[in-house]
């Protein structure tokens, strides 16, 4: 269940770690005299049942029994499939298939059915792989009532996608694009369309590369933040208690997981002053000119009102969408609840647009005051990035 590998990189007698299977066998033998004497002691070299072939046979037998139990639990009921594909470490295209069904107790169950090696990711190859897997376990496409894939053209294509090929054989196998995945794609598309937001996340990526690219800088960030926390606790500014003041770091965000962007921005907000100090150290003592220049450039960008404004704005927006994304990924959700949750989140976003300006601006101004960042003059001329000051408008 934990997906732990049996095999070790080096299973020789002199290896310090022979892998989970052999190490566990040695541990049991050390506490069981019968196993120690019969299997590891007196058994012939070719009959110890510890060879790689035997380990693979054990894994296959376990996989067969587990899958058999899943099929028996599902019975002849209708089911849905979730499919995705990716390359493994040996550069082979693998398609993972998960079945979703309702058991005898009325609970929605998701079970991993198997991996299928496909020569390419065309819809016809994927369909052939699914049929081959179904035939191994006595399943039929006629019993299929749902399809869940990502938004790639080979999966959801209207004419030649996998969902269309299956619908031709079974018109009841309805396709549903994952709501959480749609939300991620929407956020990515909107962010890349807005110049300031796109530039902001480019800066976040550069910042994570500079801070996270060195263990020394990571340790320096932890130490500086620890010093600030200790000072805050001694002054009574920071509360103490179970689960509070946990160690933080800046994780590199990923486009396909926009919840990671939210976590990164939250951590940056708490570590802001410590991050600036680390960048100042790199700018003064970096080993290379490019490192020092990058650190100084980042300090110049981060100590601007515009950067901090977008930081607070994106935390507020991603906080709403991240909560929706987490709820949409729960197993007990259905299409009716999902639609309702989307409407609720849209209402929250509209409230931020209608009534959230004053509170957001106050948060940014207070944060600027705490970190000695110059506030912007709202009476000044508004200059669009990439354009000259000619034809600029007042901010108000």
Q: What would you say this structure looks like, in words?
A:
The strands form two sheets. This protein has a five-stranded mixed β-sheet with strand order 3-2-1-4-5. Strands 6-7 form a two-stranded antiparallel sheet. It has helices at residues 20-30, 33-42, 52-74, 123-136, 153-156, 162-169, 179-193, 195-212, 215-234, 258-285, 289-302, 305-328, 335-355, 357-370, and strands spanning 79-87, 93-102, 108-117, 144-148, 174-175, 381-382, 393-394. The chain is 57% helix and 10% strand. The mean pLDDT is 82. The relative contact order is 0.05.
Which stretches of 5+ consecutive residues score pLDDT under 50?
none
Mean pLDDT: 82
Describe the sheet with the most strands.
Answer: 5 strands, mixed
Number of E-state strands? 7
Cα distance spanning the termini: 60 Å
Q: Hey, roughly how much beta strand do the residues contain? A: 5-15%
Order of helices and strands: HHHEEEHEHHEHHHHHHHHEE
What spatial form do the alpha-carbon principal axes imply?
Answer: globular
State the share of residues found in helices, binned by percent: 55-70%
Count of discrete alpha- or pi-helical segments spanning 4 or more residues: 14
From the alpha carbons, calculate the radius of gyration and give it in angstroms.
28 Å
Oligomerization = single chain
| Computed structural class | alpha/beta
Lateral arrangement of strands in the main beta sheet: 3-2-1-4-5
Domain DUF4371: 2-161
Protein name: DUF4371 domain-containing protein
């Amino acid at each position: 269940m934990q997906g732990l590998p049996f095999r070790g990189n080096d299973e020789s007698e002199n290896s310090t770690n022979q892998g989970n299977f052999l190490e566990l066998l040695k541990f049991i033998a050390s506490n069981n005299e019968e196993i120690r004497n019969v299997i590891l002691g007196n058994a012939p070299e070719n009959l110890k049942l510890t060879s790689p072939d035997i380990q693979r046979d054990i894994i296959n037998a376990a996989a067969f029994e587990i899958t058999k139990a899943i099929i028996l639990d599902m019975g002849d009921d209708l089911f849905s499939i979730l499919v995705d594909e990716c390359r493994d470490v040996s550069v082979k295209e693998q398609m993972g298939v998960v079945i979703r069904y309702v058991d005898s107790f009325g609970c929605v169950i998701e079970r991993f059915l198997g991996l299928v090696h496909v020569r390419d990711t065309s819809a016809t190859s994927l369909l052939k792989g699914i049929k081959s897997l179904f035939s191994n376990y006595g399943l039929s496409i006629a019993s299929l009532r749902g399809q869940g894939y990502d938004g790639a053209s080979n999966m959801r294509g209207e004419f030649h996608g996998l969902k269309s090929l299956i619908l031709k054989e079974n018109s009841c196998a309805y396709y549903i694009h994952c709501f959480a995945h749609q939300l991620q794609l929407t956020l990515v598309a909107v962010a890349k369309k807005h110049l300031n937001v796109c530039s902001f996340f480019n800066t976040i990526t550069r910042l994570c590369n500079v801070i996270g690219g060195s263990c020394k800088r990571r340790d320096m960030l932890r130490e500086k933040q620890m010093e600030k926390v200790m000072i805050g606790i001694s002054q009574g500014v920071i509360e103490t208690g179970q689960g509070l003041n946990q160690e933080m770091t800046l994780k590199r965000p990923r486009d396909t997981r926009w919840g990671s962007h939210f976590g990164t921005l939250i951590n940056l907000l708490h570590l802001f002053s410590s991050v600036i100090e680390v960048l100042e150290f790199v700018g003064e003592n970096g080993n290379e000119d490019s490192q020092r220049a990058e650190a100084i450039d980042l300090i110049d960008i981060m100590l601007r009102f515009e950067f901090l404004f977008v930081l607070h704005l994106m935390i507020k927006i991603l906080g709403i969408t991240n909560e929706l994304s987490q709820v949409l990924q729960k197993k007990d959700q259905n299409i009716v609840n999902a639609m309702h949750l989307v409407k609720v989140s849209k209402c929250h976003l509209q409230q931020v647009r209608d009534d959230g300006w004053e509170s957001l601006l106050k948060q940014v101004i207070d944060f600027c005051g705490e970190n000695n960042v110059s506030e912007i003059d709202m009476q000044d001329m508004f200059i669009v990035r990439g354009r000259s000051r000619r034809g600029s408008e007042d901010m108000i």
